[in-house]
Amino acid sequence: MARVSPEHLEARRRQILDGARRCFLRDGFHAASMQDVLRESGLSAGAVYRYFRGKDEIVVGVAQEALATIRASFERVAAAEVPPTPDELFREVFGRLQEDMGAGKDPRELPRLLVQVWGEGLRNPELADALNEAYARLSVQWARLVEEYQAWGWVDPQANTVHVARTLIGAVQGYFVQQALWGGIAPEEFARGLRALVSMSAPQRPDGAPAA
């Protein structure tokens, strides 16, 4: 039997994940069946089951790729000489996710998929582990970025960097939830709102001291 090259194996795996991602973006995790994945990928059941034991494993594979895209985007932007503001970081990561995950023009499509990923983590232990690891790494990355903000004088030097980091992550997650459930929030609008929020100045008392 002819030996199959690693490049061929990776191409087939890529074909399966790309097809599954299109199904999940269109129909959601639970509505999309294995038959839908097979049809979208253009491969036989035997070929697909050579790489994945079932749909749950494919869901984990798609989610892990999304998490890897977020991590790579963050690392690339955060490596800039001047640290990116949260809104710049959001635009970069969201744009990369849309491009890499093949999301269409509907701005609710990708947020709906991401919310489903979080929901799946409540029932799929393997996905839960991947999400927990990704959140822990992201918290560390954001905390380091907040430290840079402090060094530039943009954030209170006494602020707990982990608390600020988790708050910023929560704001971005909130965008995805709101967009998935109700829509009507363009990424650019959220980025502008986020920039306005993080650039707020504390109100001043009449004597010029910061208000409590």
TrEMBL record:
Organism superkingdom: Bacteria
Domain HTH tetR-type: 10-70
Keywords annotated in UniProt: DNA-binding
DNA-binding region: 33-52
Cited Pfam families: TetR_N
PROSITE patterns recorded: HTH_TETR_1, HTH_TETR_2
Transmembrane stretches, start-end: none
InterPro entries: DNA-bd_HTH_TetR-type_CS, Homeodomain-like_sf, HTH-type_TetR-like_transc_reg, HTH_TetR, Tet_transcr_reg_TetR-rel_C_sf
PANTHER family noted in UniProt: HTH-TYPE TRANSCRIPTIONAL REGULATOR RUTR (PTHR30055), HTH-TYPE TRANSCRIPTIONAL REPRESSOR RV1474C (PTHR30055:SF229)
Name this protein carries in UniProt: TetR/AcrR family transcriptional regulator
Taxonomic source organism: Streptomyces tubbatahanensis
